[in-house]
Amino acid sequence: MDRRSFLATAAAFGVSGLALPARADSDVIVIGVTTSTTGPGAALGIPERNALAFVPTEIAGVKLRVVVSDDAGDPTTATTNARRFVTEGNADIIMGSAVTPPTIAVSTVANEVGVPHFALSPMPMTPARSKWSVVMPQPIPIMGKVIYEHMKKNGVKTVGYIGYSDSYGDLWFNDLKSQGVTMGLQIAGEERFARADTSVTGQVLKLVSANPDAILVGASGTAAALPQIELRDRGYKGLIYQTHGAASMAFIGIAGKAAEGVFMASGPVMAPEGQPDSALTKKPGLALDTAYEAKYGADSRSQFAGHAFDAFEVLKRVIPVALKEAKPGTQDFREAIRKALLTEREIAASQGVYNFTETDRYGLDDRSRILLTVKDGKYVVVN
Length: 383
Known about the structure:
Layout: E1 28-35, H1 42-51, E2 58-59, E3 62-70, H2 75-87, E4 93-95, H3 100-113, E5 117-119, E6 133-135, H4 140-153, E7 158-164, H5 167-180, E8 186-193, H6 201-210, E9 214-218, H7 225-233, E10 239-242, H8 249-255, E11 263-266, H9 282-296, H10 303-323, H11 331-343, E12 347-348, E13 353-354, E14 370-375, E15 378-381
Parallel strand pairs: 1-3, 1-4, 4-5, 5-6, 7-8, 7-9, 9-10, 10-11
Antiparallel strand pairs: 2-3, 11-14, 12-13, 14-15
Helix pairs in contact: 1-10, 2-3, 4-5, 7-8, 10-11
């Protein structure tokens, strides 16, 4: 099985209300993964794809067929990929994508046809997307809380915001307004930029002139380094905070000296060595980081690799339960996976301990986050 095979994109199929036929090969579980291995989200999607080298090839004695397709961060392409997974491959499970807009698109398809979907990027959850989708990354309110608490602890009263002009940027700004302001923070200004922008000079100059005590950057991947660099180049001396969307060594590589002193919310996979042995996230985090860095080099670990890896940690728990109810390739099997996601508790993974419910599709708590800073070009845990 070629884990890194790519499907060619094709014209989108109309699948609303589609009843998927059973497959002949009921001895194989088919998993379609669409992620962004090119385009603005490649710094997130490539680690997600790479992590598939370290996931099981079979669960409960049943082989897994993992098919990977690149969506380049484009929602239309992600839709095409997801529809092809279900119409041509009759997939049992869909995963993806690396960034929020295409993740929403994949969720829409999954909930139209009734296929379990593991989102690999945070996304806003609505009733239309809540039945079949679960989200592997940490929810913004959990990650925001650790940032705002640190701000308050360090005397921050006013906060400027610069983030993506899309749903990921909206998620973070809305949380800053709802949670941060409730905690006593005042918003001194809001600026936005597109993922593909190469300059944020105008936005940064406005924030610097407002001179807030701290600035929160609501961006992801290497693009999160753009405002980081510009803020320091323009002489901003206050505290800068980044989200878990930027938690990778690539961010430090791009931002260079400008990354020094930044504070960043992150999942525990970025530093499992310092966790107590009792932490349920320590063993899977060490397993992933050890394997990943052996293959891709020292300090190559990534928040985003953890999302893909953890989806399979969850499947290791739910697939054996689902197999007792139905065979792969059937709608009954997909339904059994959906139900097992709601009954299995305390599913330990590298990024957190999952307890999904009908109303909580993230299923995570405070065990899923840490706070990092950059010192001498390396991430250091903030205690």
